Amino acid sequence: MNFYKEITLKSFVLTVLCLVIISCSSNDEHLRYIAAKLVNSDKWSIVDVKTGDILYKDEFYSQPSFISDGKFCVKNENGLYDYFSVDNVTKPINKESYLCASLFIDGIAFVVLPGKGISIINERCETIAELDDSIIALGGVGNGCIEFLSKNDRYGFINGKGEIIIEPRYDYILANFSEDHRAIVSNPNNDYYEVIDDKGSTLYSLPYNHNEIYGGFQEGYLTCLKENNEIVLLNKWNEVCSLGKWESEDLSKTGWPKVNNGIIVFKEGDLFGLKDTKGHVVMRAKYDCLAPADHINTLYYYAEKNGLAGYIDIDDNIIIPLEYNKTVFLRPDMLIVEDNKTLALMDMNLKKISPDRFTNISLFRGPSIISNKFDVNKEMEIFTSAITDTTFFGTNPKTTFGDLRYLAYKEPPLHQCLKDKFLTFDLTYWFNEDIVICNLINGIFNTQYNYGARIEEVRAVKSYAKFQPGTEEIIARSFDKFIQNKNFKRINNQEDWFINEDSGMTIGLSFDEGVVTIRCRYLPFKYWEKLKRNPRKEYSNPDKGYDYFDTFGYETESPKDEYD
Fold this sequence. Notes:
eight-stranded mixed sheet, 4 helices, single chain
């Protein structure tokens, strides 16, 4: 699992919408409003999907989140998030703007203020709990259990009150808790996956031999991708039946196959059909895409054939004709239908609810919830493990290219430069001579490595731009004290350079626009340029990838003729 993965949709993905609906709605009223772009507009409006009325036209430049319980978050002009209610979009509910802000679910949301850790707020944006400082990021929600990442790079679970219910001891989480209170985790000390209950007790183990990827539990069953791209249905660890060979593009269209009231999608050749949990074919493979609409009921399936989409039921009866480019249920009584590069809201009789057409509908679920509380002591622990009076990030004055030649197989080296990583730092090495020598012999280039080239300089670089302004100054002050405790002395007339007179190493720290660079030079000291230490005046937005969440993207294309 990766909490920091940026999700960008440049085409319609059915499963994402279904996940949003499942997570945010327990009744129709939770899906009363949506944020949408009207045709020929570059702003976002708020739409009452029950009546089709435009409540607020062209209200926001930034994309509002999915609207849950009448509330949503949207980025302001300073790059931070504010909460609004559909009853009042002129004044934020919150008093302080947030760096990260989740949707409201069951009356609470998770937020992060600049420079702070993760907090829980109520619908009045009042803080009701602050999470433990050891929790640095939140992940998915499963049956009331929320995944979190700890400072020790291990995963655990909290509840909706922010209380740790399962300690962070897992390498990663493959599947969150299902309705039968089971999750799948990986423990780095074992050679198998563990199935645990919501108390953290191991129920049984699953061997790695089925491959690295499992789906979550549904109705007591599990799906798993094998090395040959075959997905199989498991009952505990016993294989029940094959669901065919799936490609990545299949999964992006249909989502991971899941058991839906005893029925599951399978693939045969390039087509999809239905099987029961005993492996018997219920509907032969005949559709180009097939996925359960289980956010509506257990009978409907989204289907595509010959490039057109609609809905069928489990008996292959047509519910919504397969006549549209894209279509999906927003609620049991309402669909989004796409045609001619625009979107419309329609009822079950395919009658338009709203006279307006749209080019985008926001399914944005908010930014990743990542703590912004900076721990300078943790950073100093890295420096302690990486820098001594004779070594710098694994190098020393006698290091040659020959000692680092393994890096040449990771990335083609430049003439005098190699790159590597150390924990959270990016490293660059320079040498006193070319490390790659090319000679033209008889019209053919002959490449040789200069293994004796001696290291000249190492730079360790890390961005702290996601943290509050002033972070780099804190690092610099702590670093200056740290390096002097390692027998380095400040060089005369050089404010930011330090030298160890025994080894001849010189080390200095600079920062600019939130990026810290620590330089170590092994040459005899003569004159080093003055290092920049430029403070940030404003907060640097760490979440630029979430400025816009392209769900449909039709506003970039010219609409065609009006609907009839």
